[in-house]
Amino acid sequence: MSQLPCYESYKNSGVQWLGEIPSHWEVKRMKFLLSEKLKYGANESAESEDKDQPRYIRITDINDSGTLREDTFKSLEIEKAQEYLLNDLDILLARSGATVGKSYLHKKDKVNVACYAGYLIRARFNKENYDPQFINLFLQSKAYWSWIESVNIQATIQNVSAEKYNDLALSIPSLAEQKIIADFLDKRLAQVDALIAKQETLLEKLAEQRVALISHAVTKGLNPDVEMKESDVVLLGNIPNTWNIKRLKFLLSEKLKYGANESAESEDKENPRYIRITDIDDSGNLKDETFKSLESEKAQEYLLDDLDILLARSGATVGKSYLYKAESVGIACYAGYLIRARLDQENYNPEFVNYFLQSKQYWDWISSINIQATIQNVSAEKYNDLTLAIPSLEEQKQLIEYLKNEDEKFNRAISKGKKLVHLLNEYRSTLITQVVTGKIDVQNLKVN
């Protein structure tokens, strides 16, 4: 971006995280850009899915990209929604929790009639002087997120109230220049977003191919000419003639065991790591940044042995699994929303079972037992009845070796794709920041 033009002269903005701004720009607090005061949303529960009523927008409905999720649609009765109806180009700001600072620009041509919930704040701008689309771009900049971090730095629970949002300082050019900047970024970001979407589609296909490969290997084996037999399990179909059907409970050396009901407060590396559902990423690895530990006395009953498997038993992560390897993690125990499966390793290889827990057949089983549930939950009793197709121990080892080799190929391709997505997102964020704080002059630039 160093080749892009700058403005002729700059001045000190007086705001640390804005730095210098073009000499003809101003710094203004958000409260002076509004046509009405900031307004909190409705404190109403989200129960209806009636498409004829106003859409009820909650924090959980807003994607990281600032668009609305379709799979979480809820509505609110018009009488309750009336006071909180959104106008075109209103902006919603998240005020608490992990999503604090997230924003959403409401466009009536895409969503039409909508209202908003209590953990969101509505900002309605004076459009005669300020372009909401420019402001929404500012709310995606690194400068804005530096401010969010600074106002939350001492807080145990992240929260940005309307009073705090009122004091947000923005770098503001003339209305005409705001519109030029918004138009330039809209076109340029559309190109970047298309590249990101293309990479994300590729990553999804790679993930699907990996699951398909695993699913075939753990239910059909590697020999295409092997004689097959009916498994009598709908989700498994035909399996190799020499394989057996086994319930999970018959693979164990000890009964399934729930984890410790203890709060995660300590970060003492000298104590056993305390593994929770939130520590396990989508790849089945532990996140370093969420490390918590538990005092040895409390952890003792829940210490893990090498190659124990942890199973998530409730909520959005239900079914997720984690294979514990003592060599890479060290001493560890586990929390109450996880179930420990300790296998009879003389006959059953935990790595083979863990691969089965990544198969389509396994996830179809998870879906089938949760189909009627309002809150997803798989108890130890249910996990005990999970049916697996089991080859001999020697064939389990051969399949593991094959899948590990294939995994290396997938992981290289996936890592490359994720790195590119990260670089594109970083470029996107940097471009927005440089433009909306006046470090780059785009007035005479055209998007190819």
Automatic annotation (TrEMBL):
Q: Which GO terms describe its molecular function?
A: DNA binding
A Pfam family that the UniProt record links to this protein: Methylase_S
Q: Which organism is it from?
A: Acinetobacter baylyi (strain ATCC 33305 / BD413 / ADP1)
Q: Where is the Type I restriction modification DNA specificity domain?
A: 23-200, 263-411
- Provide the family line: Belongs to the type-I restriction system S methylase family.
Can you say what this protein is called?
Answer: Putative type I restriction-modification system specificity determinant for hsdM and hsdR (HsdS)
CDD domains hit by this protein? RMtype1_S_Sau13435ORF2165P_TRD2-CR2_like (cd17521)
Query: Is this entry keyworded DNA-binding?
Result: yes
Keywords per UniProt: DNA-binding, Restriction system
Alphabetically, which GO biological process terms does the record hold? DNA restriction-modification system
Q: Which InterPro entries match?
A: Restrct_endonuc_typeI_TRD (IPR000055), Restrct_endonuc_typeI_TRD_sf (IPR044946), Type-I_RS_S_subunit (IPR052021)
